[in-house]
Amino acid sequence: MIPLGWARALGPGMPGASTVRAAGAAAGLAAAALLPFALGSYPVHVLTVALYYVILASSWNLLAGYTGLFSLAHHALAGLGGYTSALLVLRAGIPVPLGIACGGILTYATGYAMGALTLRMRTLYLALATWAFAESTRVVISMEYGLTRGDLGLAVPKLLAATSPRPYYEVFLAAAAATVAGLAILLRSRIGYRLRAIRDDEGVARAVGVNTVRWKRFVFALSSGIAGAAGAIYGHYIGLLSPVGMKFDEMALVIIMVVLGGQRTLAGPVLGAAVVEVASEALRAYGQIRMVVFALTVLAVMRIYPSGLMGIARAMARRWLAAA
Amino acid sequence: MKAAMGRGGVAALTVAMALALGVATSVGWAAPAPVTLGVLTPLSPPGDTSAGQLIVRGAELGVQYINTAMGGLFGGKNGCTLPATPVRLAVEDSSGVPERAVAGFRRLVTEDHAVGVFGAFHSSAMLAAAPLADEFMVPYISTQASAADITRKHFAAVFRTHPIDPDRAATWLGFIQAQGWHRVAMLAENTDYGIGLVEATKALIAQKKMNVALDAVIFDRTSSDLTPQLLKFKAARPDLLINVGVGTPAYLIIKQAHDIGLFPQTPMLGSYDFPVRAEYWKNLGPTGVYLTFISYYHPRMALSPLGKWAAVEYAKRYHDTAIYSNLNAFGDAVILAEAMSQACSRDPRKVIAALERGRFDTWIGGGATFPRADGVLWHQWSPPLVILQYTQAEQTYDQAPILYPPSMKTGTYQAPR
Amino acid sequence: MDPTLLTQYVLAGLVIGGIYCLMAVGITFIYSVMKMINWAMGEFYMIGGYVQYVLITAWLGPQRWALALPLAVLTVAALGMLVQRLLLQPMFAGQLERLDEYATIVTISLTVLFRNLAVVLFGPYQFSPRDYAPPVQLGPLPINGSRVVAFLGAAVLLGLFALVVRRTWLGLALRSVAQNRLGALAAGINLSRIDMLAFGIGVGLAGAAGALLAPVFLVYPESGALSTVKGFEIIVIGGLGSLPGSIVGGFLLGLVESLGSVLISPSFRDVYGFGLLLLLLALRPTGLWGEQAREA
Questions:
Q1: CA dist., res. C128 & res. C115, Å (int)
Q2: I need a surface site. Which of A320, B93, B268, C103 has the fewest CB within 10 A?
Q3: Domain B166-295+385-408 of CATH type 3.40.50.2300
Q4: pTM
Q5: Between A49, A143, A247, which is nearest B46 by CB?
Q6: pLDDT in tens, C121-156
Q7: Chains meeting C at 3+ CB pairs closer than 8 A?
Q8: Closest residue in C to A258 (Cα–Cα)
Q9: What is the DSSP string of B314-372?
């Protein structure tokens, strides 16, 4: 658990620790970037999709974990970003990277509006309102088949000329690394402390001078924009968008990833997304029983070890360090 | 604490890499000797998993046929001197989701080294994986995915052995004209299938300038109460209501139309052969009588010797009557084997060339061909369609009279008394 | 507009609205006592349908569906109490921060668990017991007998429920916990037992809806989605924690869907409820009858 005491939170970070961390992250990233050269195209595809989920899970963790805005529309925003970019590229003929940017901007704006609308809502109302937004978006997209091709799926131009997943893996790796690094910087800045203050007690936060309205809107917009841009890249990778990805099961999957990895940690969603995606591909032959196992694991984690895999890893590391 | 966070990130990546390597190595070694046929079909939600299971059964039967009745591939047949080679099946789950289909197709080709892939049911999933078929040049046959785009896009490696929307529209419009009906209502789900059929029916009416007024309503597949939509139709009194729901909605439309007194007073036509499945009478009871429906198979149609073999073995192996999903998946496996034999090669490119050239025995007589024809007929072979009607409760489909086409007709439309 | 057709739509809307009420009341009730939303409500509805189907086909026979009903409700209620005891009770034990989040995550995981368990146990197929009663002519509209049974069943259950809440000692205890948990604790009420009972009763109502509607909407692993969607729309429209709000909201939703289908377009029928919901959230976030929602 990240220390939340006000005195420590306002103090500067330890420089030594931060250097070690940067070096470790760089080494990890380099290893991850070389990984696809050791693997066949199928495992690389699975890892590419896992990286997509890393982005979704990390940005949702910013919203729900760090700020306490328990939104249930993240999957729909990713879908919205995908459709926005795809339709702009197909209808207006703009280049794909610009389309991806437009997808991100539109979902940023949508997130801003949602943040503004749900400002005064408690967690439960917020969850219900975002859920309703997500469901109605999905229904409208699947019913407006003249524009979106509904369930048949919208054929989307590819981002890169290559059909091999390897370059896409690198694109997603860069996007995921940028997201996680950006979140790390954001959370260590004064904004990060304000967000955590809002989560812990909005009244107190306001009393000590945090503009809660502004920061809530900002976080909603930012994490929605990230989800939208990620959804857009995903669409231009798979080459076909369909509203199945906007079903609530997808949101449940993101929640499972974050909770399993560890909420309110940077590495938790990364770990959770990688483990769940890779395991669910590897165990595909076992059918629906694997979803039963995931759900049971999450229930056990919530009940026994709410800080998730990262919490377990840390406790083990601490014990190991103490013994050494 | 903060350093621990950094180490945690590295640890997370390491674990992910280790897992990935594990996946890669565990599926990496495949025995080289047998030829692999890949099945990519929905085996978990949100896909239609019962269809997927039926397709897998048919594919297993196909492999059994190739390895026993055909005595494997090659081995001196057709003058091909390669040693006799058995066939094995690799099954992948597409979940009916485009991304999963892409993953599955990659896995089948790069890990299992499949020489051909079939089993598609959901068009969106097949359309997502189709470009991969062209990239690898591995033949990919649609077993039950019907969207026009699959063949209309002229993929070099994509084939289909399933009726397309225009086939279905032509069948029921022919039936409607034979009955002298003019006002037709269509209640279609908002899927590729439902929307495609509405569009194909509209197009055919316009093209042939038929005297048929079509009133189509699209509904969301997840909605359970269709009473408002059906009440609208009841007020309009159409001559026929076409039920374009798949799975649960197909049953809900029959039930709810019956409840408000629309069916069977107004005739209803089911758009595919769901009434031949065992659940039909269990779910509907006497409510299901008088339904007419499209079927791809009826015992009065002449099965080929292959089809007869499949029907008999299927009954032995699964203690059930073979239906179209089984037979067509069986047929696709055998077609691929025949193409390999004709090409005398296990090279997927040569198999594609053989598929375009040859004529292949399948479960129904006549033989299948996949010419490079224009438009949607590219690489397309459609099995025949018939319209049947249930005239008594608990009737089995082989007892149901054939209403259409006239060449096979064994009964006339029966209205309720 | 043809008046007969309009009457038919209004009647159909009211009947489905009454059925929707039953789906919403359980959610509202659990919320008012435990201050949590049960996202797995639809899955308890689905389980109610499966239990009813299994009881009728494997044991009691189609004639004795009325006997199967209370058994199905009791099974679901017992399962609910077990879930509450094992997973939700620790919420109130004191160590956990952010109860809303905990409850949301746990119940969303339960939806994944139950749905996939249903696929594993029963396969992806649809099941349906025979209709409970022959069709009934209601004015110009013929109505399916099972719908009438479900409507009457909803009325009886809601009446019984109101009676228990208003007239019995248990109801008094439930209401006092709903108003003020600490106060109720001080008055000597065993909170954990009341929570368990409240959760059991709430999901029992969902199970009853599932069992009553098994022949109407079929039973399959995802059949709970309908109940979740409609239930949540209604509680937001009516106001979280308000029982009269749930009932008015149910009828209102039924009417809006039915009339929207005939006046605008039947294709977007399921969007009307969401539209109403988002409109209310924007204009009057507490719903029609809702308690004043405190910020944060």
A1: 18
A2: A320
A3: yes
A4: 0.85
A5: A247
A6: 887 788 888 888 888 887 777 888 888 898 899 889
A7: A, B
A8: C105
A9: HHHHHSS---HHHHHHHHHHHHHHHHHHHHT---HHHHHHHHHH-EE--SBTT-EE---
